[in-house]
Amino acid sequence: MVFSSLKFIGIFLPVLLICYSLVTTEHKKYILLLGSILFYAAGEPVYVVIFVTSLIINYWLSLLMGKPAKNVKRFFFILAILWNVSLLFFFKYYDFFAGEVDKLIGFERIPILGLALPLGISFYTFQIISYQIDLYKGKIQRAKSFTDFSVYVSMFPQLVAGPIVRFDDISEEIIKPHFTLANVESGLKTFTIGLGLKVLLANQISTLFFSIQQIGAHNLDISMAWLGALSYTFQIYFDFWGYSLMAIGLGEMLGYRLPVNFNNPYIAKSVTDFWRRWHITLSGWFRDYIYIPLGGNRKGKIRMIFNLLIVWALTGFWHGASWNFLLWGLFFFVLIVIERTGLGKLLEKTHFIGHVYVCLIIPISWMIFAQTDLHVLKDYILAMVGANYADSMIDTVHIVRYLKEYSWLLALCVLFSTPLPMKLYEKFKKNIITDLILFAIFWLSVYEIYLGKNNPFLYFRF
Amino acid sequence: MKKFFGHLTQYFYFYSIVVSGVIILALFGSMKVKNYVESVTGVEAGFEAMEDESETTEITETGNVVETTEAAPEENVVTTTNEEFVAEQDLEETSPEIDGEVVAEETDTISDAVESENAETVAETEAPAVDGENADLTEGEMAGTEPAANGVEYIYYDPIAVNSKYYSDPGCIALTSTYDYTTVEDDYFNDACFIGDSRMMGIFDYANLRQADFYCNNGYCTYLWSKEKPVNHQNSGKKVVLDDALSNKTYGKIYIMIGLNDCGYGNIDNFSERLSAMLDMIKEKQPDAIIFLMANLHMSQSKSDGDAVYNNVDLNAHNVAVAAFADGDKIFYLDFNPEFTDENGYLRSEETFDGVHLYADGYVRCAEFLKEHGVVK
After folding, report:
1. Residue A264, SS3?
2. Partner residue facing A189 (CB), from B13, B20, B197
3. Which residues of A touch B261 (CB under 8 A)?
4. A-contacting residues in B 244-263 (Cβ below 8 Å)
């Protein structure tokens, strides 16, 4: 079940909130746990078994880690990490690596399993690992009960696509959520903004990128390639930011404060700055659980570069089991290493050049991210740098037509990439006009979802 | 009371969403209940009932009876073959390798160079699957097939069992109708018009045939035409009803590629009726025009497999129905699928992004095909 579906907005959420409000504060977590498992089962009727099993094993291992003897503690800690990493590896990467090995040796030696990826496994695995590490290092108190631990991992707002929450962020709220009407109202507003970003911006602009991909990367000229890259740049941002806002809003409605995941990434002035603002909980996770334990920048320049390499290769692969994702991670690795030489500070000081640099680099990086087929990726990047001018099938007519059709949407996307709309919202949050605008956004989004749902031929209409 | 209103205004957004939500849910729910009651009491709602309305069917049927003199023999051949093969397939169901495979046999009478090429591509690759019995039967059937009056040749194969009330596997593929086509230049299209769906728009966009008029938009189909829905005149961007557009200007050639989106509206017979009516209209308004019926382009494997409505079997059934309208004199059937499909009839994945539409350069090759298949009288 996704947040931007009628089932979720029309049935699941109202029913859950009613049940949630009916029980006492101490019992709310049981409703939340039950709801979250149902939420997960609705999307993954089979893999919910794996999810629950993993919860039980992890909780059991965390109990064993409570033993005083240091070696025993360490043993169970390593076991816990191994369990989670192998689960993730098995479902997400096994087929990819098996396929690559088979390709290398020329025949199918290692069987491809073709298993579907369990929903949210990348997110909940990282969340559980953060819990086990924090517990091992004594940064947090162990969850009071299996329910508390399960609520922390499975809480439906963040279960499927983050934000990646740390246990100490919400451990108090699990016991005592701040469930008030004020929070419900405020959370509903945040949810509405996220829904609007996802349905009215991301979904709409996605058709532009889709149409441009239909032309074929090998047929694009430089302007159309950039228009496509730009549209995907907006699509992925509003899609993910919208989803994160919906999650935060839902958390707020339930009386939880979930961490912020995006802070106007596209106004960054360097790639380093961009990653301080984009998917903050993920980059924070890699910093705290990979980069710093590896030694960070405390063990000399060469070791630092090596550590960055590891972090960015992993970041790339975390996004998907395909070479283009590794390439995407390494692309950032190179840029960040270059920026570490002092160029980054210079860029951040010279505002204009910094912005231009980010506006050029980020769309290119998203194309590396989006094109899983390396041949298509090559064609696309060639088009972006203007190298396949001779083969281009693009006329000014085509560009003018797309610009005409999408100019308003693109302008809105640019506007919402700046901090202005959210600043205005914070300022006039209590204003009746804000309420009315949000009301319109909410029902317009629901209407759009309804149209999409009742129109199975929709994707034939491009 | 004052406190109550204060509370309401403080949480205005929450209450407005809740109240409007309850109202909408109630309306939606009552609509569903109403639909359910109607379906139980026999008053069927929805599209299928609309398609089967006895009145419409009768009118079109009578229209069709008048029309059938030309097309009847061909249709008969196709249907009998189909039935025979279905019966044959029941017997054959024990051999799983054949079940579901496309089995083909080349016809002898192919004269046109391009067509024999087409046939070869299909027949060559699929020939190994032909087992003796089937091949015999196919030949037997073929012997009964007069060199089609409308110039369309068919490749026959074992139809696969289809679990749908809207279409069945016709058991054959229609090939480009035979004619001494000539290669034509760009100016051939000066008095041409193109009618179709999003794939025709691709030809408008990238094939450099803008001297012709294009009446097409996303999802356009004979069903929408029959409901008098307007279509975009791509050259000007204006919305027009096709009948009006054809009344206002005289065309020498009319190219039609339509049917993919009809898969979503009714069954094959409904489609044939609508296309027949459409062609009647065109022939009435443009008595001197040569009509080219273009085969609907197949879909890729990933798109076609597993889709109960939009799949290549259904699409091929539509294409066979389209081909039945060719007369070899004023109406011709052109199939450029072999240019883009693999040995199983799937659109090759390197030709398409979404499995339905060609990359821009593919549409240029479509235009090349059309230029190689000009009819000059």
Report:
1. coil
2. B13
3. 457, 460
4. 260-261
Side-chain-side CA neighbours of B272 within 13 Å: the count stands at 23
B17 lies within 8 A of chain A by CB = yes
Nearest CA to B291 out of B192, B377, B214 is that of B192
Mutation target among B3, B4, B8, B14 for the A interface, most CBs of A within 10 A: B14
Q: 3-class SS at B213?
A: strand
pLDDT for B132 equals 35
Residue B80 has pLDDT above 60, yes or no: no
Give the tens place of pLDDT for each residue, B95-110. Answer: 333 333 333 333 333 3
A460 and B310: CB-CB below 8 Å? yes
Of residues B128, B78, B79, B120, the one with CA closest to residue B102:
B128
Task: Please write the tens of the pLDDT for every residue from B109-144.
Answer: 333 333 334 443 333 333 333 333 333 333 334 433
Q: Which residues contact B14 (CB under 8 A, 6 or more apart)?
A: A181, A184, A185, A188
| CA gap B14, B19 in Å, rounded | 9
CA pseudo-torsion sign A157, A163, A165, A171: negative
A249 contacts A190 by C-beta, under 8 angstroms: yes
**Residue A439 and residue B16: Cβ atoms within 8 Å?**
yes
Q: How many CB atoms lie within 10 A of CB B109?
A: 13
> A59: which 2 tokens?
């909780």
Does B354 contact A210 at a Cβ distance shorter than 8 Å?
A: yes
B365/A contact by beta carbon, under 8 A: no
CB contact at 8 A, B369 and B334: yes
Question: Over the stretch B237-276, which tens digit does the pLDDT of each residue have?
Answer: 899 999 999 999 999 999 999 999 998 888 899 999 999 9
Long-range own/partner contacts, residues A90-96 (CB < 8 A, 24 or more apart): A91/A115, A91/A117, A91/A118, A91/A121, A92/A117, A92/A121, A92/A122, A92/A321, A93/A317, A93/A321, A95/A321, A96/A321, A96/A322
Select from A399, B317, B172 the least CA-distant residue to B309: B317
pLDDT of B55 reads: 32
Min Cα distance B223 → chain A (Å) is: 14
Q: What Cα–Cα distance (Å) separates residue A4 from each residue in A203, A270, B218, B315?
A: 11, 33, 26, 33
Q: Give A439's Cβ-side CA count (13 Å radius).
A: 17
* CB spacing of B11 vs A10 below 8 angstroms: no
CB contact under 8 Å between B353 and A218, yes or no, is no
Nearest CA in chain A to B363: A215
Q: How far apart are CA B292 and CA A80, in angstroms?
A: 68
> Under 8 Å CB-to-CB from B7, ≥6 apart: which residues?
none
Pick B12's closest partner by Cβ from A213, A216, A435.
A435
Strand partners, A268: none
Q: Which H helix or E strand runs over B153?
A: none
Instruction: Name the minimum distance, in Å, from the CA of A296 to any CA of chain B.
Output: 43
Task: Compute how many other C-beta atoms are within 10 angstroms of the C-beta atom of residue B11.
Answer: 18
| DSSP code per residue over A301-360 | HHHHHHHHHHHHHHHHHHT-SSHHHHHHHHHHHHHHHHIIIIIHHHHHHSHHHHHHHHHH
Query: Do the Cβ atoms of A393 and B206 come within 8 Å?
Result: yes
Residue numbers in A near B17 (CB within 8 A): 188, 439, 442
The interface pTM score, or ipTM, of the predicted complex is 0.81
Query: Residues 3-32, chain A: which have Cβ within 8 Å of B?
Result: 10, 14
Q: What is the rounded CA–CA span in Å between residue A212 and residue A189? A: 34
Active site (annotated) includes residue A319: yes
Comparing CA positions, the residue from B280, B311, B305, B299 lying closest to residue B353 is B299
- For residue A163, cis peptide bond before it (omega within 30 degrees of 0): yes
